[in-house]
């Protein structure tokens, strides 16, 4: 009863749908550089995104999350920001952004921006002023004196302040001759770390959030949040303490995993910053009448991730866990996949919101990582499980990694290998090749003579236009599942997962008084017929509402739960008859309108190899 009262109080400020949209949002990640080029320079841009918003609306997307669009020297394609309040020229102007935002609003699509708080570009005004010790910028970054060491001949030489190693290998400290001190960079040299122990930095970053919230964005995805803080030298005799050695065999002092990151990762202070940002976003719920989402990315083990959900007294976040990305492979059985789903649902604190992510701009695409036979299955699972679903651009048509030769490679992770063979195992270019709109030149992405990354060579057969024209396609399946995502059962129903065998996975979403939803996946290379009479609450009559590309059963086919024929590598979504068990309005448990802060996890392991 108390829960219902809280709901009513909140609902008086804004309508329930404006407050709850995030809990079951379908968020579409756009990598602007590769989505759509509107001005023929070979690089995607904001106006290109605006042109394609109607497509995203027709697909059923609730919100778009844009990878960084800010002014940047592009050493890391926008994750190195020179000015948090300006648009990168090649992506357009602030007027283009405002136009995008207005168009999106008129189509009912919310816009979420990437926020990169762990570091700026070394070519930002902030960093230049800090290097010159200009107030109040002097302590905006983590500056420290070097240590003196003495070599075998008694000569004193300078060493970095501590043994800390960059995520991209080698010392995390870089000497700045102008200031006569070292600065910390947990990523590349061009990405100096901000100093969150400075109150000015804390305020400056909040002002950045306010700048975009005032424009009307619906929230942020926060990058690398678990690296915001480093140990406080005041607690260690005025110096930055060395991190202990991991003693993992085969690693050297330049390798990130050589150390255990007790002083540079997951410090307790981090959580308070996340909760503070949450409070700031909450202030906008009242003034703008919609919930503001914040998705934050971190790589940490489960117990630490869960802390991003918040505490008893502070609202937190939905930690992004990439278990679909990290823990499911092309060899995973139905048992394995069920285990991954159940584990997250088990550890998630009660009343909080889950999230499912199949791909992003840093990971090999689903079709490449798990095999094209599993594209429909993985898309469907992310869309029918409870909580937020995130689709990386192109996954809805089953794009696979493009081939990018060493000559064409631009990703710093690939380039840093200096190796025309080894680059392929770490480069993130293949999952960033341009979106395949149609069969025309450059897949309809651009009219330029050449594009910033080559278009994947399968675009003549694998493109959106062809999939819309085809009778069956990944896109039709995806869109049909999304349409059914709005059903009461998928929005609010109880979840049950069953692995009937190593190759058969069944997911039910059931809500009393409503039609049930049933997802069936056959991972095997042969057809199987399944009998679901053991699922007592599931009504017997079923209708196919979405049929994957490999399925013989077509949409609208009706059958009973005792005999369901499922083709090889087929994913099917069924709607059942009305689920019994009482009055729909009173029977199910309404969850609190909790705050969404999605903490994305991020794997950097590829780079250590
Ligand atoms: C390191 O040595 C230089 C001279 O070689 C000296 O000026 C400096 O103060 C020393 N720094 C520390 C931290 O001892
Ligand atoms: C120490 O001096 C010896 C003899 O001059 C020289 O060979 C060696 O390279 C020096 N070591 C270092 C670290 O400079
Ligand atoms: C910034 O860092 C990059 C290396 O990542 C370097 O090439 C560039 O010269 C630096 N820029 C400035 C202004 O120091
Ligand atoms: C961080 O917080 C946890 C729980 O609040 C506590 O157990 C732990 O000792 C803290 N760690 C440090 C380094 O203060
Ligand atoms: C958490 O957020 C909800 C909804 O925005 C709000 O009603 C509640 O008071 C917040 N709780 C805390 C502890 O701030
Ligand atoms: C996600 O959570 C699982 C536990 O469910 C954990 O084993 C895994 O390391 C987490 N993944 C990441 C990337 O944090
Ligand atoms: C899948 O299994 C095959 C054959 O056993 C093996 O070669 C491959 O490395 C496995 N792939 C993954 C991602 O585990
Ligand atoms: C790569 O570029 C070099 C130098 O421009 C050229 O000689 C070589 O043929 C190119 N290789 C490929 C595979 O295009
Ligand atoms: C399925 O039924 C719907 C309406 O019930 C209809 O609009 C649609 O064309 C049918 N689809 C097929 C493939 O028969
Ligand atoms: C978690 C993480 O690494 N996030 C970003 C932090 O900065 C690096 C370097 O720019 C980016 O590549 C990451 O995406």
UniProtKB/TrEMBL annotation:
Give GO terms: molecular function aspect only.
Answer: alpha-1,4-glucosidase activity
Primary enzyme class = hydrolase
Domain called Glycosyl hydrolase family 13 catalytic: residue spans? 29-432
Gene3D superfamilies (UniProt xref):
Glycosidases (3.20.20.80), Oligo-1,6-glucosidase, Domain 2 (3.90.400.10)
Q: Where is the signal peptide?
A: 1-16
Give the superkingdom in one word: Eukaryota
Catalytic activity, per the record?
Hydrolysis of terminal, non-reducing (1->4)-linked alpha-D-glucose residues with release of alpha-D-glucose
Any idea of its EC number?
3.2.1.20
Q: Name one GO biological process term.
A: carbohydrate metabolic process
Name the keywords, alphabetized.
Signal
One Pfam family name is: Alpha-amylase
This one is known as alpha-glucosidase
Q: Which organism is it from?
A: Bicyclus anynana (Squinting bush brown butterfly)
Q: What is the lineage of its organism?
A: Eukaryota, Metazoa, Ecdysozoa, Arthropoda, Hexapoda
